[in-house]
Design goal:
about 400 residues, alpha+beta, 3 domains, six-stranded mixed β-sheet, three-stranded antiparallel β-sheet, 14 helices, about 20% strand
Length: about 400
Amino acid sequence: MQDSKKCECKIRFEKEKIKKAFEYFSDSVTDKKFIQNVSQSSNTESNESKKLCDVCEAKMILLNCLATLKNTPFKHNHLAHLHTLHLPLLEIFVRMFLDECEKLVKAGLKSDYLCIVQNRVFLKGKLEFKDHITQNLIHKERFFTSSDEYTQDIAPNRLIQSTLCVLSCLSFSPNTQTRLDSMRFIFADISPSENIESDFIKCNNMSRAKEYEMILLWCKVFLGQKAFSPYVGSDKAIAFVFPMEKLFESFVSFWLKKCAKDFKVKTQESSKYLLQDKEDKDKDEEDKDIFCLKPDIIMRGKDRIIIVDTKWKIPDSSIDEKKCGISQNDLYQMWAYASKYRLESSNVSVVLIYPQCERTKELEKSCRNKKWTFKASVLDSTENTDQADNNNGISISLAFVPLLS
C-alpha cells in the first residue's frame, strides 16, 4: 500500500526537457536508427521519473498528454503554478477553473442588454397586447410587458453559475472549498443556465467575449462532460473518462510537429480510399470512392513519406519473440496504408510508436537492430524488371516515445 503520509512529489512541467528528449526520438524515427543519445536521454528520464511515486507519475503522464490537446484548457502554462501532485486530478482542474474565474472577476463581469418579457404589477417598457389580454383578462392590476435591461444575467455568466452549482455538490480540500464558496457568492445574483446547449451557441455569437474564451472551455469540460462521467449513489462523485489512445496520438503528433523540422506532419489525413465503387451508372457520373483511409500521422519529407501509427499499449513479446509483440491485424492495417501511399512516393516507411516505460526497456533494446520490410512490397530478384534493381521495399520499425519531462 502507498505510504499514508502526504505525497511531496513536485510537478515539473519542463518543456525544454520534453523537447530535447523528443528531438532525439524524432531523429530515431526519421532516420530509422537509434542514436546513442536516445538511450542516454531515456536513462536520464527514467532516473528522474523514479523520484515520482506511481500515482503521481501516472498523473504527470496524463497531464503531459492533455497539455497537447487543441481547443481545451489543459495547457502547461496553466498547470505550471501548481506546486504538488498530491491533489486529486479533479481538484487540480477545479483549481484551474477557479483561477480563470478570479481573473474574470478582476477584469469585470460582462453585462449586456437583454429583452426581458414578464408579467409585472407595474407598467414598464412595451405592453404586449396579445399576451396581456390572454393572461390578464381577470387580473386587471397586472401588465404583460417587454423591456430591454442592462444585466449580468447573460449566457456566459449563466454557464459559469451552472458549473459552480455542479462543483458545489462535491467535496474538496478546505482551501479549494473556500475559493469555490467565494465564487458562488459573487455569482449569487445570476441564474443558472436553463438550456446549456443554447447558451453555448449564444456565447459563440456574442461579441467582446475574449475574456471568457478560456473559462468557457472549462465550462464545456464540466457541463458538457467531455472528460468526465458522473456517478450517482449515496455519495456524489465524478470519474474521469479520457480516451488515452487519442491523447497519446495528440502528444506524439504535437511534439513531432515541433521537433521533426524537415517533415510536414499531418494527423488523420483522409485523402485516400481503399475501394472504388464501379456500379452501373450514367456516363457522366464518376466512380465513387469508399472506405476512407485515415492514418494516425503522415510525415512528408523530401522524396519520402513516413506513416506513423500510435499504439497506447505495451507489446507482449513473450508469446513470439521474433514478432516483438506486434499484432498481425495492425500489420494488415499498416500495409493497406503503405501500399496506397506508395503510389505517391517510392520511398515509404512505417513506424509503430508505443509508450516508453520500464516494461519496454528490453524490447526497445532488441528492436534497435531489427530491419523489417513488408515482403509483398519487395519484387522477386528473379524478375527481370527495371524496378527490381531500384526497389527498396516498405520498411517497418518500432519506436518508444518518452512521456515524462
